[in-house]
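HUMAN: Would you supply a protein with fold tokens?

ASSISTANT:
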Amino acid sequence: MPRPSYKQIAHKKFEEAINVLLIQEADLMTLASGVWLDQQWKVGWMATMLAVSAYSEWERFIENLIYAHLCQDTSQLAATLGLSLPRQMSQDICEVMLTSSYRLT
């Protein structure tokens, strides 16, 4: 069986995270239907946190796709930064290059 690509792994993790958020949203809607008026601020707060969680998962998904594409071909980044980089690198190294303050020059 072939090993899944970084992009496939990122997609799978994103789908799993969204499924968890959908379950939480269903629980929230069930809770909201039986909430007294003085407790509705809690439902609003929970909905806001659910939206923040969804955005965070989307951001993590996009970052993982960027790392996955970069590790397949670093030539554009190398040309832009004026660096001599190997054409292919591990996803971990690509993530460190883009997220840390470490400079290769």
Remarks:
- The chain has a mean pLDDT of 82.
